[in-house]
């Protein structure tokens, strides 16, 4: 059923690395980082929560894809959750924001009302509609039979109120709270009873979707006007988050809380891969972890079992995903 499960995106992992100790809170772009990180984490948890309801669907009938990103024409488009079956497809735009989301008639605008303030946000129904249209074009571009692609904005936050201005109630036909999602899918299924995709077509679509999916891999340092030299180096304490821990006799020691760890360097190396570049050498590792010994650095990289290339002297280690 879950052909592409819900996983934390590469963008969120990079934001998390900066948020969790690799960016100075006094940096002028820090508020922007915090805002984006919290919003994207909320979205991620919102998508995860929708899985509870989607898991109630018959496994044999549906293929479900989280965060699928495809090239159509010159540009990429991304769908939060895509459901595909023999009769239809369904593009879901999932939001997990507290407050009130209000749809106005004028220009089909959407507003978020919270704590006495109102701000315009992207209309999630129109977002879902656009992604459905692009998916339809993408499928035709790859010579698949014409299949109806429906769309929904799914609110996953139980504290959020959805309202529409008088005369704009029609838009609510493509809106539902997560607890009503299964009923919405069943309604579409009752309406779309003719099979458009054979089992062979579904297998081909599944293979193509997974092979053509291209994760968003942003230059996060450029986005927040950072240089690699501004990234704090060292190994973070897993208990108190202090930087840097000290390496001695095979163990990392925190001078602030006295915590000890043998594996605290692994998250630090992953931070390097995410923020600096997807490869690392012995000398680059020593500089980032703040250690002096070539032998110790070699031992840490070898035991971490990262893919590598080159001879011992010129060996380069690669991130298994980012390479």
How would you describe this protein?
It is a single chain. The protein is α/β, with parallel strands linked by helices and 323 residues long. It has 2 domains: 2-212, no CATH class; 233-318, Arc Repressor Mutant, subunit A (Orthogonal Bundle), CATH 1.10.10. Helix content is 36%, strand content 23%. It has 9 helices and 16 strands. The protein has helices spanning 10-22, 30-54, 124-141, 181-191, 199-212, 220-223, 265-275, 282-289, 294-304; strands at residues 2-4, 63-72, 75-84, 89-95, 99-103, 110-114, 117-121, 149-155, 160-164, 175-177, 246-248, 251-253, 260-261, 279-280, 308-309, 316-318. The protein has a 6-stranded mixed beta sheet with strand order 1-2-3-4-8-10, with helices on both faces. The protein has a 4-stranded mixed beta sheet with strand order 7-6-5-9, with no helix packed on it. Strands 11-12-13 form a 3-stranded antiparallel beta sheet, with no helix packed on it. The longest helix has 25 residues, at 30-54. The radius of gyration is 24 Å and the shape is globular.
Number of strands: 16
In angstroms, what is the radius of gyration?
Answer: 24 Å
Compute the average pLDDT.
Answer: 94
Largest sheet: 6 strands, mixed
Task: Report how far apart the termini are.
Answer: 29 Å
Q: Are there runs of 5+ residues with pLDDT below 50, and where?
A: none
Physical arrangement of strands within the biggest beta sheet: 1-2-3-4-8-10
Number of structural units classed as domains: 2
Q: Quickly count the helices.
A: 9
| Proportion of residues in helical segments | 25-40%
Tell me the β content. 15-25%
Pfam families: NERD
Domain NERD: 42-158
Protein name: NERD domain-containing protein
Organism: Neobacillus citreus
